[in-house]
From TrEMBL:
InterPro entries tied to this protein: Membrane_assoc_protease (IPR052165), NA-bd_OB-fold (IPR012340), NfeD-like_C (IPR002810)
Transmembrane residue ranges: 6-21, 53-72
Major subcellular location class: membrane
Pfam families: NfeD
Organism ancestry: Bacteria, Pseudomonadati, Verrucomicrobiota, Opitutia, Opitutales
Bilayer disposition of the protein: Multi-pass membrane protein
Entry GO CC: plasma membrane
Residue ranges of domain NfeD-like C-terminal in the record: 97-150
Protein name: NfeD family protein
Keywords: Membrane, Transmembrane, Transmembrane helix
Length: 155
């Protein structure tokens, strides 16, 4: 009985420390310790003892996970442990679609890729009309992921 309790205790402690030292090693060893405790309970106490051990292990794991992910993040230690920063801003794709129809000038030669300037901002562009010299007037006709598709303004 003592070795079963020790294995369960080691398993739960290792699973608990997995939050502080992520990587999976402590989680695997904790799971193996719990499994070993369940096997020893089956061997020593039969089906009834083994079933009780599995139920106990399951409830302990649920309790540890609940503590780690529902209670711990609200504590002072948890607030320093877990990331809470949110990403601000919009994706470049969302801003690029707003540029369709805008006029700009090529900052570099587009052969067929290069850079254009619209409202003082540089953007990567692809010329649908082939080679364009630097300083040529262009119109944005579409977007392709983070790249603008342009044609010469006279087209």
């Amino acid at each position: 009985m003592t070795i079963i309790g020790v294995l369960f205790l080691i398993g739960i402690v290792f699973l608990g420390f997995e939050v502080f030292l992520p990587g999976g090693i402590l989680g695997v060893f904790g799971g193996l310790a719990l499994l070993g405790g369940c096997v020893m309970a089956f061997v020593g106490y039969g089906v009834g003892g083994g079933g009780l051990a599995i139920l106990t292990a399951f409830l302990l794991v649920v309790a540890v996970l609940y503590f780690e992910f529902a209670i711990l993040p609200k504590t002072a230690i948890g607030k320093r442990l877990f990331l809470h920063a949110a990403v601000d801003g919009t994706s470049s794709v969302a801003r690029a679609t707003d540029l369709v129809g805008q006029l700009g000038t090529t900052a570099t030669a587009l052969a067929p890729s290069g850079y254009i300037v619209i409202d003082g901002r540089r953007h990567e562009a692809f010329s649908r009309g082939g080679f364009l010299e630097a300083g040529a007037a262009v119109k944005v006709v579409a977007t392709d992921n983070f790249r603008l598709i342009v044609i010469p303004e006279s087209s």
